[in-house]
Amino acid sequence: MFVAPPGYQPVYNPCIPYLGPIYGGLRCGMSIYVQGVVPHHATRFHMNLQCTQMEGCDIGFHISPCFRGWDKVVFNHFQGDRWGSEEKTHHMPFRKGEIFEMVIIVDQECYEVRVNGEHFHRFNHRMPVESLNFLQISGDITIQTINVIGGGIPAGGYPGAQMGGGYPGGMGGGTEVIVGGGMGGGTEVIVGGGMGGGTEVIVGGGMGGGTEVVVGGAGGYPGGPAGYPGGQGGYPGGPGGYPGVPGGYPGGYPGGQGGYPGGQGGYPNEIGGGMAGQGYYPGGAGGYPGANLPIMGDQPIYNPAVPYSSMIPGGMSHKKTVIIRGMIPIGANRFSINFLVGGSRDIAFHMTFRVREREVVRNSMINQIWGAEEREYTVNPLQEGQFFDMSIRCGHLKFSVFVNGQHMCNFFHRFQRYQQIEIMEVDGDIQLSYIHF
């Protein structure tokens, strides 16, 4: 199972209305990525960055596209039971019946809003961003992906860590133990009480081989309803949101109402999820599941051109995660991702996605010689016209590849000194939304 590293909080196919935590709170340098579809019948929807989960709480940033009459997008804040002065524009970047991508970048002075790769609006801070802990979405909208990016692990850890908590559903964190063995070899054992967490043990073995054993209980992100409380809501009043329409990727991540499989997740003082929420975020032992993973950088590279080539900040390292978010255009044939060794230009890990044949080919090229191809995979949700979220994680034994939260394939190291991998390249029929190291 995929465990998100600190600085990356993905949510796939949430139900609307949606209310979810920003773990550790919002901070400058972070950004929130939202990808969804505006239904043909849409009249309005809104997104709030707010202080608590309670109805009527303060809202630091509010955006509300309205499609009635003369289209407009309204920005505002809500504090002390009062709305502030509106900022609005009649330039409407959202289109009924069409997919959109929106990024809210938290700068020192303002929120910068980008829609479909283009700058849209700047909204100056009216409240301290550190006071904002929840994202709320409601109205006529279908959301396929939400990613809270940047921030790392806050001081004092994530909520519930002091009480054996962490993410709802008991996703264990874990430790790592390495005993004997040569470089990259041995046995990898993951034992945990939740999804993707637990203890990693690498024991003995020579260079290259290895066995992986995963033992763990159920768990996960909250699988139960996570909607905004009912009653009066919206902007600046009236009935709270509309029921959401399930959507998203083919073969999307299994689970309940908008999340990883697990119990009835729940926020503080609510019933359900993990340890029944006695005033903290429920969860199993181990705290935040990705706490032993390297922290992601604050800001991704948004909308890079293809072909893309970049140095990997700090080079490749154990447990480092590279995230590629993009879309496969209609009519696409294939695209490839390469991880190269600095100096020699050996390709330590090569992936080609043959879209029409629905094949995922992995290989390496060392000393100018291609190795044996590998074609097996667990699942391949990549299709023309679909967005995807790919996470590539480097371990002592292998690379693990996840798409939309689902495990796709592994590639055991053929170039054992993976710390010398310094370059990543992306080429072919692909539109990149962002790359995050």
From TrEMBL:
Task: List the SUPFAM superfamilies.
Answer: Concanavalin A-like lectins/glucanases
Tell me a Gene Ontology molecular-function term this record carries: carbohydrate binding
Cited InterPro entries:
ConA-like_dom_sf, Galectin-like, Galectin_CRD
Per UniProt, the keywords (alphabetical) are: Lectin, Repeat
- Residue ranges annotated for the Galectin domain, each copy included: 18-149, 308-437
Name of the molecule in the record = Galectin
Report the source organism.
Umbra pygmaea
Recall the taxonomic lineage recorded for the source organism.
Eukaryota, Metazoa, Chordata, Craniata, Vertebrata
